[in-house]
């Protein structure tokens, strides 16, 4: 007997990009909390993630989940110089906006707004999309993220030059590259294993 | 630490170079990008997805991006898995019939519908289905959606994979393979461009 997909409970689908907190409903069965072994729990890395259906679903391949999470945390949270956290989150939000991941965009737009205090610009990115005018430095980060997210990849020397002209050194540019690249990973999991829902 | 680093190898990063120093500033990301490659393509336990299936999917996904050098690396893995000439030919032919540009796709009905864009919804051709078999056929159709129009994802393609004999856990692994490669390809391409812009 093949397994079957899940039918999510009745919910309201978000139809715009938003900074609001969203839920996420899986299309295939996450591990139940009582099924989690020590290996699964280690792979979740944070105790709070036990409550998350998304992370309990990814925990079905615990080695892949743990390596994914350790890659993620270093790209976004490593405080050793490079791109400021707000702009790493901007790369994540812009990538999510272009790929169309309403859930991922909501999380990383919130982070970008929190760290940059530029709520209006973040809202503009969500409302208008990746062509929004956010000032030259942010425009350069968004344009680089868009070029990296396109298939085939369209990131070229002109994007590097524009980032340098905006004051980014090569470590910061590598943070843009890794931030946008990582969200091409994250968006695809979040978009394809379940769907977002408005809370409440 | 793993003895070879796939991203360094594919970019051409040599010890002591400027990019070697930059990657060393994000040591956990460097290490776990490599660990991700290893646990997805050469895991200690293959579980429900064979090495050949992992590299067939990997080769298909990378070639869809038109990344020649990275594609050659995954094709070599597929050859090393003992793939038949028929399978190698079918993967190459599938790339030929599936390649397009992205991201495109539709949004839930509402204000974002104005941003909907159309593109190729890939269905493996009848002549390739026999060589690929039902498991890889559904995996390739799902991967094509993930690569080019991920916002069109729906439970139906997951059900098609379950019906073809994949388990829920296998689907998580297959999804991780395509999603991880979407990352690895872009890091390699981006860092290569950065290195060439010195």
Shape category of chain A: globular
Beta-strand percent range of chain B: under 5%
Indicate the low-confidence ranges of chain B by residue numbers.
Answer: none
Report the count of strand segments of chain B.
Answer: 0
H/I helix tally of chain A: 9
Provide the gyration radius of chain A in Å.
18 Å
Span of the ends, CA to CA of chain B: 28 Å
Oligomer: heterodimer
Name the overall outline of chain B. Answer: globular
**Mean pLDDT score of chain A, rounded?**
97
Instruction: Report the major sheet of chain A.
Output: 2 strands, antiparallel
Distance between the termini of chain A: 35 Å
Portion in strands of chain A = 5-15%
Would you give the CATH topology of the largest domain in chain A?
AhpD-like
Walk me through this protein's architecture.
The complex is a heterodimer of chains A (200) and B (198). Chain A has 200 residues and is mostly helical. The mean pLDDT of chain A is 97. The radius of gyration of chain A is 18 Å and the shape is globular. Chain A has helices at residues 38-44, 53-58, 62-77, 85-99, 102-116, 119-128, 136-149, 157-165, 170-192, and strands spanning 22-26, 194-198. Chain A folds into 2 domains: 22-75 and 193-198, no CATH class; 82-190, AhpD-like, CATH 1.20.1290. In chain A, helix 4 (85-99) packs antiparallel against helix 5 and helix 7 crosses helix 9 (170-192). In chain B, helix 4 (51-64) runs antiparallel to helix 5 (68-80), helix 4 (51-64) crosses helix 7 and helix 7 (126-148) crosses helix 9 (168-196). The relative contact order of chain B is 0.15. Chain B has 198 residues and is an all-alpha fold. Chain B has a single domain, classed as AhpD-like, CATH 1.20.1290. The mean pLDDT of chain B is 97. At the A-B interface, helix 3, helix 8 and helix 9 of A face helix 2, helix 3, helix 7, helix 8 and helix 9 of B.
Question: Could you list some keywords that capture this structure?
Answer:
heterodimer, A: about 200 residues, mainly alpha, AhpD-like, 2 domains, two-stranded antiparallel sheet, 2 strands, about 5% strand, B: about 200 residues, 9 helices, about 65% helix
């Amino acid at each position: 007997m093949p397994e079957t997909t899940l039918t999510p409970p009745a919910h309201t689908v978000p139809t715009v990009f938003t900074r609001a907190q969203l839920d996420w409903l899986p299309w295939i069965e996450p591990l139940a909390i009582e099924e989690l072994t020590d290996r699964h729990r280690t792979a979740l890395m944070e105790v709070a993630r036990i409550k998350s259906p998304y992370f309990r679903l990814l925990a079905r391949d615990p080695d892949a989940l743990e390596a994914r999470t350790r890659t993620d945390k270093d790209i976004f949270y490593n405080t050793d110089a490079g791109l400021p956290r707000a702009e790493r989150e901007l790369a994540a939000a812009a990538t999510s906006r272009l790929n169309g991941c309403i859930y991922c965009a909501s999380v990383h737009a919130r982070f970008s707004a929190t760290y940059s205090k530029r709520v209006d610009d973040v809202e503009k990115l969500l409302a208008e999309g990746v062509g929004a005018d956010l000032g030259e430095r942010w425009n350069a980060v968004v344009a680089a993220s868009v070029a990296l997210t396109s298939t085939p990849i369209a990131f070229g020397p002109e994007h590097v030059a524009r980032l340098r002209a905006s004051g980014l050194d090569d470590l910061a540019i590598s943070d843009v590259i890794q931030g946008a690249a990582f969200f091409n990973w994250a968006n695809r999991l979040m978009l394809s294993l379940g769907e977002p829902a408005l809370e409440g | 630490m793993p003895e070879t680093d796939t991203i360094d190898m594919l970019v051409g990063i040599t010890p002591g170079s400027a990019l070697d120093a930059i990657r060393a500033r994000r040591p956990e990301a460097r290490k776990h990008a490599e660990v991700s490659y290893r646990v997805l393509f050469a895991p200690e336990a293959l579980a429900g997805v064979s090495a050949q299936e992992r590299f067939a999917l990997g080769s298909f996904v990378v070639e869809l991006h038109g990344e020649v050098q990275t594609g050659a690396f995954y094709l070599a893995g597929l050859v090393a898995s003992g793939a038949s000439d028929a399978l190698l030919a079918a993967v190459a032919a599938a790339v030929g019939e599936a390649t397009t540009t992205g991201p495109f796709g539709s949004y839930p009905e509402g204000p974002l519908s104005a941003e909907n864009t159309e593109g190729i919804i890939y269905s493996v051709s009848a002549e390739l289905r026999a060589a690929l078999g039902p498991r890889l056929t559904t995996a390739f159709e799902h991967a094509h959606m993930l690569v080019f129009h991920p916002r069109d994802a729906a439970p139906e393609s997951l059900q098609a994979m379950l019906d073809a004999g994949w388990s829920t856990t296998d689907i998580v692994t297959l999804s991780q393979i395509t999603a991880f490669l979407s990352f690895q390809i872009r890091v390699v391409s981006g860092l290569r461009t950065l290195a060439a812009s010195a």
